[in-house]
Amino acid sequence: MQPSLSVIILAAGKGTRMQSAKPKVLQTLAGKSLLAHVLDTCHQLTVDETIIVHGFGGEQVKSEITNQYAQSSITWVAQTEQLGTGHAVKVTLSDLPTEGQSLILYGDVPLVSCQTLAALKTANIDGMSMLTLTVDNPFGLGRIKRDQAGNITAIIEQKDADTDEQGIKEINSGIYCVDNALLHKYLPELSNDNAQQEYYLTDIVKMAVADGITIAAIEPEHTFEIEGVNNRQQLASLERTWQSKLVADLQEAGVQFADPTRVDIRGTLTAGQDVFVDVGVVFEGDCTLGDNVYIEAGCIIKNAHIGNACHLKPYCVIDSTEVGAAVDIGPFAHLRPQTVLADNSKVGNFVEIKKSTIGHGSKVNHLSYVGDATVGSGVNVGAGVITCNYDGVNKSQTIIEDNAFIGSNASLVAPVTIGDTATVAAGSVITKDVDAKALAFGRARQTQKNDYQRPTKK
């Protein structure tokens, strides 16, 4: 039977160098808070208990995370004094089981992978395992001290390291997997007799060595997995590193980017083969692209499914929309939530569609607004057409049946139904249902005054 697994996430830091009223762990990377990245990774593991240690802006952190993870069971523990990482873990002891293991993570180290954490847990055979990394420039970081046999004997902080120890290039990430029994034993014994006068979590390594425990160490696949965020520059750098990784994975899957450095993926993006993405495109939330999708510059795509062989022309905004196959969209189209476009349909220049279905082969080409509508197949919606769906209080439905033709600049005042193969004359205001195959006019008779004299300026 596998031992139970707890996760302790240290998220109490103020992040003074961020120069922000927002707690550091709520700063965003790839459209998601740093702490949410850590939680999402943990949710890929089988975790029995999640404990978050909060401090500065704790109520704000609790509120945002609780709302976002309403279905998750999270234990919140306050660290009222910032006395070091050892103290931060120590305040969890009253909530931490005495059996099982704990992963110790950080709310401002967002990109450690599930695979790395799983390997770290597997490596913990004797009671403790840790994540380390060999770097060219270890300045400012805790060094891993080993004996002649290669066994870890201690972690030496930069300010406490002598000249030889400062030359060590294997550094401590601060991420551990530790038996809970050892945490309950060692944390109460920590001392702050050091240059920082803090309770170092790293001292539990020395205690474990003294008890004859062999400490396992593994290295992550990617350096960025242990990178923390302390200021805006580090956040921006890590953002670009993460974006490069996401783009590289998609390139391996067959996606072509016009410029891999000029695209942002703020969520998850799944794409088929022979997809092209031009510059300045932003993906948010969960997005899916079929095969042979062609996306031109400046599009923003959020929580959308785009079918095979679709063409998105420049500067479209597509939000929570289902797009069928071989659909042309844009330029400058705005598809709002609950829009469904059937196969071979077309949405053109400066068209806005909201909470509507556009049927197979139908066209809404120019300068139109379609809201709360069901549009059948083979329908042509002319330039400047508006579905008047809102009376100031209630939203009402417009139904346009198959093969109808809606002339330019018509206003369809909902609730209203336009019948199969009906025609609405240009410029009409339609307030009553139109029968199938009928022609509907709803405009004033044209009059003409010959030899009209325009007003002149007095």
Short description:
The chain has 458 residues and is α/β, with parallel strands linked by helices. The protein has eight helices and 39 strands.
Task: Fill in the keyword field for this structure.
alpha/beta; elongated; 11-stranded parallel beta sheet; 2 domains; 458 residues
Explained architecture:
- By secondary structure, the protein is an alpha/beta fold.
- The protein folds into two domains: 5-226, Spore Coat Polysaccharide Biosynthesis Protein SpsA, Chain A (Alpha-Beta Complex); 232-440, UDP N-Acetylglucosamine Acyltransferase, domain 1.
- Helix content is 17%, strand content 31%.
- The chain has eight helices and 39 strands.
- The strands form six sheets. Strands 13, 15, 17, 18, 20, 21, 23, 24, 26, 27, 29, 30, 33 and 36 form a 14-stranded parallel sheet that branches.
- A hairpin with a 5-residue loop joins strand 8 (143-146) and strand 9 (152-156).
- It is elongated, with a radius of gyration of 30 Å.
- The termini are far apart.
- The model has no long low-confidence stretch (mean pLDDT 95).
